[in-house]
Specification:
Strand order of the largest sheet: 2-1-3-10-4
InterPro entries: HemC, Porphobilin_deaminase_N, Porphobilinogen_deaminase_C, Porphobilinogen_deaminase_C_sf
Shape: globular
Domain Porphobilinogen deaminase C-terminal: 239-311
Structural class: alpha/beta
Pfam family, one: Porphobil_deam
Number of strands: 13
Largest sheet: 5 strands, mixed
Number of helices: 9
Keywords: Heme biosynthesis, Porphyrin biosynthesis, Transferase
Helix content: 25-40%
Pathway: Porphyrin-containing compound metabolism
Length: 342
Amino acid sequence: MTNSSRTFVLASRGSQLAQIQTNLAMDSMKSLFASSNTDAIPKFTTSFMSTAGDKNQSQALYLLGGKALWTKELEVALIEREVDMLVHSFKDVPTVLPEGCIIAGIMEREDPVDSLVVKKDSPWKTLDDLPNGSIVGTSSVRRVAQLKRKYPELVFQDVRGNLNTRMAKLDAPDGPYAAIVLAKAGMVRLGMGDRLTSDLPPPLLYHAVSQGALAIEIRSNDEESLKICQQITHQETAWCCLAERACLRKLEGGCSVPVGIGSSLDGNVLTITGCVTALDGSKHVEHTITETVTNEEQAEAVGTKLATTLIEAGAKEILDDITIDREMRIKLAQEKDEKIST
């Protein structure tokens, strides 16, 4: 344990949820030194900033270029030594980090399941309850692609903004949404778990890679930060999330690719399921692997093996079609913007 009296700056996005999560990480770090009798113990403070993903709330995430939207400005501040640690929702972190940055800490995961929230005072509780033609809000093509398979009669529509903004859009009396789909973990951390009306667990809906977990990113040469982060890392969460991320990295997926995942660790036995679904739900590839692992590297190897199996089973064709579709939509969006500007 470090005996440094250094002050560590923990940074994240400025949303209410990001601030809550950063404070959770900071409290865990402070607790490591709670019983120390010396004055030479580290101090911790926070810094919050807006990212490109926060600033652009109008375009669908599908068109905006992936997860770096949420992390790039933060990583610049980290590399330039303005801050010391970044606290992320792990699902928002690209699978390849900038040179000189590493994930040093992975905190215990909340339930990673996606959940349904219906408009306030509505009689419905589940997707099955919703009338045909009801509008369900979500910014995730992963959710839309999977849910269209069972609910082709529902209309899925983009809804952007932080959790508080999305909830306000849902509850607006003149708003179009009958319900929205959200990550359960964020709602629970915000103290809004009572609004969740039903969970959407696998096999109906496989969650995003690393969903529900918090990750701490540091400079790779910062030994003091590394030691602290290692002490708040939850091994089961780390092995599962690293396996999931290895699968996504091999598939070259990101925020806009419908890769769903589920994993569990029972002792040293890792079970991981992955799926890739066409945007319209018409094609779906799914596979499960169970193997014994004894370290992070072996867990990652299982994730990579799963991705290879999915590719061989047809996932590459689905992902190629999605890439073509996105490029076409981006071109149309750019042409629309050009017409508006002229």
